[in-house]
Amino acid sequence: GRQLLWLAISDHVEAAATTHLSRGVCTLVACSGHERERWLPLFASIEKYAKDEGCKIMRIFGRKGWERVLDGYHVEHVVLEKTL
What we know:
It contains three helices and four strands.
């Protein structure tokens, strides 16, 4: 019950996201969809859920570009990867 799948649905699935709760942190592990402007406001519902569950921090694993479109978020860490 600490991980959830979130769906933005109209007549089809517009976006999907997964979250994980751990030690006062709600981590958005994955998120993808089309026409982001239609479902991006739904992040407020995820943030409310996290706060209601006692989380003090909302964390997102994703591209740096999310910082540009999510109000109040800042880059905390960068993950580097190399294909061998």
